[in-house]
Amino acid sequence: MNAKANLKTLLAASVMAFGVSQGALAQGTIKIGSVLSVTGPSSFLGEPEDKTLKLYVDKINAAGGVNGKKIELVIYDDGGDANKARTFATRLLEDDEVIAMVGGTTTGSTMAMIPVFEEAKVPFISLAGAIEVVDPVRKFVFKTPHTDKMACEKIFEDLKKRNLTKIGMISGTDGFGASMRAQCVKVAPNYGMQILTDETYGPRDSDMTAQLTKIKNTAGVQAVVNPGFGQGPAIVTRNYAQLGMNAIPFYQSHGVASKSFIELAGAAAEGVRLPAAALLVGDKLPDSDPQKKVVTEYKQAYEGATKQPVSTFGGHAYDGLFILVEAMKRANSTDPQKIRDEIEKTKGFVGTGGIVNMTGTDHLGLDLSAFRMLEIKGGDWNLAASGS
Question: The domain spanning residue 122 has which CATH number?
Fold first, then answer.
C-alpha cells in the first residue's frame, strides 16, 4: 500500500474513532463506547443504530447531559468482522477508557466482545438477537432485542392458533440464523410442531430454489419458517413466490424487521408474517397502548433527522442508550460496577422493543407480549389478524 493510501486509511479510521457528540473534548464528560457494523453486509442493522446513538446523544447533551455531565460517544465500525470487533472493544477500554458500552450489531461480533467486557467488569448492552448473548447470564452483559427463542415461540404460537402444526424450515447458516434454527428445533415440541424438512443456505448464496423445491415436494408441509437476516431472507421470499408456494403460509423472523426487506423482496413479501416490535406499527396501536407514545416519538425524530424509514434495529440502540442513561442517573456515579447494578434493577422501562423488567437472572427483561405478530400487506407492516 502506498503512502497516500496509508494516509487515507488512517484518516478514515480516525474519523470513526473520534466519536460523534458535540463537545467531545470538553472536561467532565462521560465516555460511552460503541462497536457497530456501520458498513459491510450487516450495515442495514448497524447504520440505523449508529444514527440513533448520534441523534440521541446530541439530544441528551443539549438538555444538560447526565447528572450534569455531557456524554462523549466513541464509535468504531467493525464492518461485520468479529475479530475487528474484539480489537475495538479492547481499544475502547484501554485507550478510550469508556465506562459502559452500547453496541454489538451482530451475534458474532457480540460474542467476540463479551469476554473483553466481562474481564474488565464494564457493562455491555448488546444490540444482537441471539439468546446466547444473555443465556447463560453473565454479570456485565445485557441486551435489548427480543431473542431468537422468543421469535420461534411467537411464530409457533401463531401457527397453533391457525391449526398449522407441520412445518418446513429453511435457515441461514450465519450466527443468528443458525442460533434461531437451533432454538426453533428445541421449542417446537412444546407447541406440538413437527418439522418435516429442514434446509439451510449460506450468507452468500444468491438462489435458494433447490432448497425450497425440496420443501415444496415434502408431503404434508402446512407452513414454512425462515430464520435468518440480511439479504438471504429476501432472496428466499422471492424464490418462494417464483415457485408458486404462496398458498403455504410463510414466516420470517424479526431479523428482517426493516423496510429494506420489503423493498428487496418486492411484491413477493405480500402476506409474509413475522414477529416484531411495536415500533413498526406505532401508528396502528390503540392510544391506550403504553408503547404508543415512545414509538411514535422515536419514529418522528429518527425519520425527521435521517429522512429514512425507521427500523427496529435503530430502536434497539435507542432502548440500550436510555436503559444505560437511566441507570447512570440512578447510580449518580460513573463507577461501572454501580452502573451495572442499576441496569440490572431496570423496571417498567417503556422502550421501542417492549416494557423492560430485568432481574439478576434475566438480562433482557422482555416477555412474549413485547412481540407483535405482523403481516406485510400492500407493501407495509400491519398487525396480523389473530387466528386467521
Answer: 3.40.50.2300
Decide: 180 and 171 in contact? Cβ < 8 Å.
Answer: yes
Cα separation, 294 vs 125, whole angstroms: 20
Which residue do the cell numbers 475479530 mark?
Answer: 83
C-alpha to C-alpha distance for 167 and 90, rounded to whole angstroms: 44
Q: Say what the pTM is.
A: 0.87
**Could you give phi then psi for residue 365, rounded to 5 degrees?**
80, 20
Q: Is residue 158 part of a domain?
A: no
Residue 181 within any structural domain of the chain: yes
Range of the domain at 58: 3-146+295-357
**Which string of DSSP letters, residue by residue, matches 175-195?**
HHHHHHHHHHHHHGGGGT-EE
- Chain centroid to CA 324: 17
Question: Do 237 and 379 lie in a common domain?
Answer: yes
Region 138-157: what's the mean pLDDT? 97
pLDDT of residue 288: 95
Q: How far, in Å, CA of 299 to CA of 296, rounded? A: 5
pLDDT tens figures, 76-100: 999 999 999 999 999 999 999 999 9
Q: Taking Cα atoms as reference points, which of 71, 80, 130, 127 lies closest to residue 102?
A: 127
Question: How do beta strands 273-276 and 349-350 pair?
Answer: unpaired
One-character DSSP codes across 218-251: STT--EEEE---TTHHHHHHHHHHHTT-TTS-EE
Distance CA 275, CA 259 (A): 14
